[in-house]
Amino acid sequence: MTELTLHAPSFAAATTGALLMLKMVLMILVGRQRGATQTILGDGDVDGPLYRAIRSHGNLAENAGLMMVGLALLEMLSGSTTAVQGLCGLFLVARLAHPLGLSGGIMALRVLGALGTMIVGVGTGALLIYATLLSA
To answer: Model pTM?
Structure first.
């Protein structure tokens, strides 16, 4: 068995911090739309700004948690490599693009956000499997 050295996931931690701040901004935007539309519960009109704000917030919540765990584990296993930094950066850009596209009705940004998230997810998963097999 190979000895395993773990590295502190500082780059993943910084990316998580940025995503937490983005999540709080999206949460505030949902609250503002609730006040503006006087919608206490529910999501209002599916074409309305409250629905879009809720989906932007929810989509980040659906994706960020597991992705950041994966990126942190990858950084712990392999160090703060260019690959880890690139994946963190791409994920942050993708997660910024998605709510901008959704709130502004810009389909290209929504697609960029979804595609970027999928690329980071597949890349991180594959690199985690590879890193784990190397240490076995």
So the answer is: 0.86
According to DSSP, residue 47 is labeled T
How would residue 122 be classed by pLDDT, with cut points 50, 70 and 90? very high
- How far is residue 119's CA from residue 31's CA, in Å, rounded to a whole number? 31
Residue 21 buriedness (CB in 10 A; 0-12 / 13-18 / 19+): exposed
pLDDT at 136 (0 to 100): 64
Residue 114, token pair as written in the block: 């979804």
Of residues 109, 92, 133, the one with CA closest to residue 52:
109
Dist. CA 75–CA 83, nearest whole Å: 9
| C-beta neighbour count of 126 within 10 angstroms | 10
| CA–CA distances in Å: residue 87 to residues 32, 40, 93 | 32, 38, 10
CB distance 60 to 23 below 8 Å: yes
Conformation bin of residue 42: beta by default, left when phi > 0, alpha when psi is -120 to 50 = left
